[in-house]
Amino acid sequence: MDMPKRSRAMSDTASTITAVHSDGERETDGHLILDQRKTTQAVEEGHDADTPSNAGYILTREDDVKRLKSIETQRKRQSLALAEQQAKGDVEKGVQATGDGEDDPNIVWWDGDNDPENPYNWSTLRKVLNCGCVSFQTFLSPLASSVFAPGVPLVLQEFHSSSPEIATFVVSVYLLGFAVGPVVLAPLSEIYGRVPIYHICNVGFIAFCVACALAPSLNALIAFRFLAGLFGVAPLTNGGGTVADMVPQKHRGTVLSIYSIGPLLGPIVGPIAGGFLSDAKGWRWNFWLLAIVSGFISLVMLIVMKESFGPVILKKKAERLRKETGNQLLHSKLDIGLTPKDFFKRSAVRPVKMFIRSPIISIMALYTALTYGYLYLQFTTMTEVFQKQYNFTTELVGLSFLGLGAGSLVGVVLYSLTSDKYIARKSAEADRIAEETGMEKQGMKPEYRLPFLPIGAIFIPVGLFIYGWTAEKKVHWIVPIIGTAFGGLGNILVFFSIQTYLVDAFTVYAASALASNTIIRSVTGAVLPLAGLRLYEKLGYGWGNSLLGFIAILFLPVSFVILKYGEVLRRKYPINNL
């Protein structure tokens, strides 16, 4: 790794900012240059999402002024400190070797390309332990969102309630916690590290699972479910970042595929297991089991997990070296000069800003929200549908969710086997055409991720029509389950297409783009199911699901518009200076 070159890049970046503030008319161009430099360095170093490159985060104009003043003050202090130390004959403390000493002797960086503290250089076993723990929690937390759905009738019976809205909300309120959590937890993990946030949230998740198991009333159960969701979202919010911390970009696809299995299959497996457990031990044992299993994996995480977030590792290294050397000017190369309060405020509001400023992000968030809302509407109503129409027991109701699981698995396999090949072929075709016409090669475009989007969008209404009308007419129970499989397939294709597109299209701001998407879809997933049972009461299962299907058809053109004009919208409304 060429350390002097990287340091010069930082100097160039500071010069760009200075030029911007000396000429107000060039402010926009300066931010674009800074944005491009940030993206380029992030790719070179294997960073993505909001993990900072050597240039640090892109600052607002006010932050730039603060940072430049801080740098100037620091240089003056450094000169005075060096003079004092030289006078004392203790020059070595003033020129601590930190891997980038040619330009700034007080910058702390990795000790070469093979530094064992760098998570990229960890052993395979260490990486497997970290990824394995997070992946298991990422499976367990979404499972908790739906695990006691088959036992909801038992809950209503115990608390003497017959409200269909309460029956739905007691399940879906968990997702409201999923919506609130990322706004708080993502910035905190970048200030204090991934591991402390995991440990704190694990304790909170266990505590509120126990509280759910002991809930004395429906209102208390709903409140505890919300708080369990808020703490339980930590592995979903920070898990992708943990993988990116340790695994270089060229090897990351396989690991992320394994990690993604949890959020996809957890909500499907939950009702299957919960149906048998509720029937055998009662609904409260769903939460006791969650607390026990989560307690075990939390203990394992406490023992084996190691901090993987580079900026936090380097910050601690700088603190250690300051104590050892007495040189108070030592600082991490990734220290961006913002207080934790300022950093938290910026990171917390960035997803909202991106949703407002970028049409492509807002359109995709709303479309994902629709499909996610339909998915959880089925989670919260399938128990009544199959008990009422087919006289299923609580155990059998859990098994009825296998259709969604099977469809989701088919979607995962289909996308995984074909997406990368399609992208490689399209990129090669584009490069060949560029060579023939003498134009510059574009490489892989994010829009190459989208061909499955309209296909998935078609499967969703098809599944709703099959599920609704066959359940209405009491056709053999396997047929509506097949209908849910079509819906599961469509949902996965839409979800994967949009998620991978956002990562590729917004690079530096990918994590914030995903957070914006997560917040909107989680709120919809919590609220839309409230209308499910009332909808079926008024229109029946056939016309009720048909109404949902017709709405999905109305949104069908959106998928084709995104496929055709996504690049135009992305370039017309770029995301800069957030």
Automatic annotation (TrEMBL):
Source species: Xylaria grammica
Recorded GO MF terms: transmembrane transporter activity
Region annotated Disordered, chain positions: 1-31, 82-108
UniProt superkingdom: Eukaryota
CDD domains given in the database record: MFS_Tpo1_MDR_like
Name of the featured protein: Major facilitator superfamily (MFS) profile domain-containing protein
Gene3D superfamilies on file: MFS general substrate transporter like domains
Keywords: Membrane, Transmembrane, Transmembrane helix
Family the UniProt entry places it in: Belongs to the major facilitator superfamily.
UniProt biased composition (Basic and acidic residues): 22-31
Broad class of where this protein is predominantly found: membrane
Localisation: Membrane
Regions crossing the membrane: 128-149, 169-188, 195-216, 222-244, 256-277, 283-305, 354-376, 396-417, 450-469, 475-496, 508-531, 543-563
Signal peptide range: none
Matching InterPro entries: MFS, MFS_dom, MFS_trans_sf
